[in-house]
């Protein structure tokens, strides 16, 4: 069975949640950590999708996307970003 983009999105959402659950409250993860968890060999190809999933989670109020400690819109942020639980 071939994996769809929706399947990958769901896997990335689960990976982001699991990674954040494993961290201390307020700690952050990099979107690449979720991409690596979903596709260890091809994680770089998943980076744009991982950022999009983080943006959707942020829009739902579940996480915040930050850059240099400030909350940013991942759709317009350039360069490295981090993800943390909203709160």
From TrEMBL:
InterPro entries: DUF3253, WH-like_DNA-bd_sf, WH_DNA-bd_sf. Pfam families: DUF3253. SUPFAM superfamilies: Winged helix' DNA-binding domain. This is S-adenosylmethionine tRNA ribosyltransferase.
